[in-house]
Amino acid sequence: MNKQILQVTERIIKRSQATRQKYMEQMQSAFSEGLSREVLSCGNLAHGFAGCVTSEKLELADMTTPNFGIVTAYNDMLSAHKPYEHYPEKLREYAHKYQAVAQVAGGVPAMCDGVTQGRPGMDLSLFSRDVIALSTAIALSHNMFDGTLCLGICDKIVPGLVIGTLKFGHLPTIFVPGGPMPSGISNDEKAKIRQDFAEGKIDRKELLKGEAASYHSPGTCTFYGTANSNQMLMEIMGLQLPGSSFVNPGTQLRDLLNEHAVKILAETVRERSFERALCHIYDEKAVVNGIIGLLATGGSTNHTLHLIAMARSAGIHINWEDFSDLSEVIPLLARVYPNGAADVNHFHASGGMAFVIRTLLDNGMLHEDVRTILGKGLREFTREPKISESGQLIWVDGPEASLNNAILRPANDAFSKHGGLVMVQGNMGRSVIKTAAVSDENLVIEAPAMVFDEQEDLIRAFKAGELDKDFIAVLPFQGPKHNGMPELHQLTPALTVLQKRGFKIAMVTDGRMSGASGRVPAAIHLTPEAKDGGLISKIQNGDMLLLDAVNGELTCIDFETVNARPARIKDNSGTFGMGRELFVNMRQIVRSSEEGASFIF
After folding, report:
1. Comparing C-alpha atoms, which of 499, 513, 496, 521 is closest to residue 438?
2. Most buried of 88, 181, 406, 540, CB within 10 angstroms?
3. CATH number reported for the structural domain that contains residue 488 in this entry
4. Is residue 485 part of a domain?
5. Is 70 exceeded by the pLDDT of residue 517?
């Protein structure tokens, strides 16, 4: 096992000792109470199964039949969650087959960053994660359930479900994915269409035609953003079935995997072992494995927030130094858009998660001795699901070599010796940058600042021809305390065009970029944020900045002059519309980016 990985793991265990112990004591106490509904009065129980058919009522009343709580993020506006429409009825059928009952415990909200990008609703996006966590807790609070099936895929939804279910960590829990849509137009073609629109070469009708050809059917978007990073995480952390992350919706294999998830949960519940509960699976080693998976595949920057918040729900404390130190020894194995031209379907066909886990294990870069939903170590996740000639689900060893070295490589012949995320710090504070898609010549940028209060200001300056020069775009007052930390993905096409014109371009912000952050170096999640008087609130046009992703440095070269200025104040007390006024209290109590940007913890 790699020594640095062991050192990071040990310091996380030591740092988390008191809070982890308290959490596990709470979970042990909840588990010791026995079957959940045994403690309910007859009136409680009657309410709980009143909507069931007669046979289910009898089964639930006898206290021996397992009851599964389904927490669903279904809505039919999100392509990724449309496949979940009929999951509950199918999961109930599977439960009956394995002598169990399944009930929809509750629904959680599921918003799409792809729909709200650049719009006021995006200010609610990050906060929706904690709302989902709270909604999950409410769903499971009825105490009717012996195990949980989580239906969620996209950006804030899976982290929210994890945070919520960890508070019921005494229960076995399995995540049931829906899978990505089939591939549409190529990612290179999609990127070119967006850049052509940004430059005024095509009109909005042509842009919409291109976007619709990319996002074209039920299923997860096929680029490697936060949604698909979520699926990678659930698999490498042992919380969903091996090889299940990137199987397309509406296929026979998808249905067989869903049935198998119910079978595994039924077996686990009947075993009545605390060792098989979610709280035991989700431990410090699993968290480290999740970070390693993120780094090795060049996953979403949003998880430098989400993984921290998820871990805190289990009493585990991680920080950006842990990410950065692991990044020094974890190689980049995948080239999936925006890191390359391929999409997740190509990644899956090239060997996918089975190969990623195998090559990392074989090179001592993952903890193998972890618990998973299968009750076995992580080596079991190097196997893949297949359909036998008789139509049965079988498991076979995954590939020992990549099937496409342009997309996926072994750990000893990686695209880069270092992971896809780096922490940068200096007199401006601490920040993270996704380096997986940034070319070597753009990893170090020294240039004057250009300050923009909103995305629209930069886009207007771009269209007016005012940005044809080297500069570092600075966007303050985009942090969680000011406006909920919206993504700034609207800036990507314009900044990419300027970079292609040969200018040295970068961005610094206390906000977020998309989970699909691309080729323009962007120091994001900066803390302290402008709302807290961070140095970013004092930067003015022309101040010289250095963003050095090689040496992990983010510096204002004119520090003495800049720091002597008073911090700029931007009032957000009058923010309203799209429900943003409902989140005033959340903005006041939310923690910093490096603490997970959560208003729960």
Report:
1. 521
2. 181
3. 3.50.30.80
4. yes
5. no
Chain Cα centroid distance, residue 301: 8
Identify whether residues 81 and 201 lie together within a single domain. Answer: no
256, 108: one domain: yes
Cα three-residue angle 456-458-460, rounded to 5 degrees: 70
Pairing of strands 429-434, 522-527: antiparallel
Residues 494, 462 contacting (CB under 8 angstroms): yes
Q: How many residues does the chain have?
A: 601
Domain count, the chain: 3
Q: Which domain holds residue 193?
A: 185-216
pLDDT of residue 355: 98
Instruction: Answer yes or no: is 523 within a domain.
Output: yes
Cα 137 to Cα 160: distance, rounded to the nearest angstrom: 10
Residues 290 and 239 in one domain: yes
Structure tokens that stand for 172 in this block: 């076995």
Is residue 479 situated within a structural domain?
yes
Closest CA to 65 of 27, 105, 38: 38
Q: What pTM was estimated for this model as a whole?
A: 0.94
Rounded Cα distance, 539 and 509, in Å: 11
Tens digit of pLDDT for each residue in 303-334?
999 999 999 999 999 999 999 999 999 999 99
Tokens describing residue 335: 């080239």
Element (H, E) at 4: helix 3-15
Q: Do residue 211 and residue 232 come from a single domain? A: no
Q: Which residue in this structure is represented by tokens 């044809």?
A: 468
DSSP state of 53: -
Beta-strand runs (E) in 78-218: 101-107, 147-151, 173-175
Annotate 419-435 with DSSP letters as a single string. -SEEEEEETTEEEEEE-
Identity at 120, one-letter amino acid code: P
**Phi first, then psi: what are they for 211, rounded to 5°?**
-65, -40
| DSSP helix/strand/coil, 220 | strand
Same domain, 211 and 221: no
285 domain-assigned = yes
Average pLDDT over residues 328-348: 92
Whether residues 193 and 293 share a domain: the answer is: no
The domain boundary, picked from 328, 361, 377, lies at 328
Residue 360 CA to residue 188 CA, distance in Å, equals 29
What burial letters (b/e) apply to 151-190, b meaning 16+ CB within 10 Å?
bbbbbbbbbbbbbbbbbbbbbbbbbbbbbbbebbbebeeb
Alpha carbon distance 59, 111 (integer Å)? 36
Whether residues 302 and 448 fall in one domain: no
Lowest-pLDDT choice from 28-42, 119-133, 140-154, 275-289: 28-42
Q: How many other C-beta atoms lie within 10 A of the C-beta of residue 124? A: 22
**Residue 222: CA atoms inside 13 Å, Cβ hemisphere, count?**
28
Same domain flag for 102 and 148: yes
Taking alpha carbons only, the member of 375, 176, 147, 370 closest to residue 265 is 147
At a CB cut-off of 8 Å and minimum separation 6, what does 37 contact? 44, 45, 48, 60, 63, 67, 143, 144, 145
Cα distance between residue 451 and residue 543, in whole Å: 10
Phi-psi region of 486 (alpha: psi -120 to 50; beta: other; left: phi over 0): beta
